[in-house]
Amino acid sequence: MILQVTVTKYLPTNVYFYVDEESKHGFIIDPGAEADKLKKVAEERGFVMEKILLTHGHFDHIAAVNELQEAWGAEVYMQEKGKIYAENPAWNLSDQLGKDIILHDVNYLPDNAVITLKDKPDFRLQLRHVPGHTSDGCIYYSEQDGVAFVGDCVFRESYGRTDLPGGDEETLLSKITERILTLPKETVLLSAHSEETTVEHEMKMPWYAGRLK
Fold first, then answer.
1. Residue 213 falls within a domain, yes or no?
2. Counting beta carbons within 10 angstroms of the beta carbon of residue 95, is it exposed (0 to 12), middle (13 to 18) or buried (19 or more)?
3. Average pLDDT in the 2-11 region?
4. Residue 210: predicted pLDDT
5. At residue 137, does pLDDT exceed 90?
6. In this structure, is residue 156 part of a structural domain?
7. How many whole angstroms separate alpha carbon 24 and alpha carbon 159?
């Protein structure tokens, strides 16, 4: 089960609950604000959130993490280059809000790491490192459900900005081509700031011309 909840305190950001329908255990991806709203959704639906997964460390993806971590006892995961974003408000951009955000007790994962539910290892996501928007940017791919949670790497007919700390446009375009557009064409891409798209649709975009083989 995938449930999208949009939070709007800072920027409209799509938060995703990815939950096993049988056990109601699951993951929450990019809880960027409004912790009370997200807790209410989980409570009303009987969700047990085992893990908080971050596609990258910008404030609009992490601002609710500390409160949810405390409320649920959930483990927090991000790509291994995310430490500077988790611990440095200048890098996660929260210093611009006048409210410094620092994450604690984060588990840092390497490329291709697999995240599973505690008692159901077949319910899994694979972390794929896609730097360029940030140096720690990643997606979480579910082969069994044919979906990838892509954060700010890819938007429908667009891609993430690259002019912030750790960003690089050439790197982002190259890694999108290598790590996302090589997934099965029917894979649904769920981003943080746009409607859903597919690998097949994004392969048609001109900025990938000449990169695809």
1. no
2. middle
3. 94
4. 81
5. yes
6. yes
7. 32
pTM reported for the whole predicted model = 0.97
Give the CATH number of the domain where residue 187 resides: 3.60.15.10
Q: Which residue has the tokens 């392969």?
A: 203
Cα-based distances in Å from 212 to 21, 77, 118, 153, 174: 36, 31, 37, 17, 10
Is position 112 within any domain? yes
- Provide the token pair at 93: 């951009």
The count of structural domains within the chain is: 1
Confidence label for 98 from pLDDT (cuts 50, 70 and 90)? confident
In a domain, residue 124? The reply is yes
Within 8 A by CB and 6+ apart from 109, the residues are 77, 78, 79, 80, 115, 127
pLDDT tens digit sequence for 51-73: 999 999 999 999 999 999 999 99
Domain with 9, as residue range(s), is 2-208
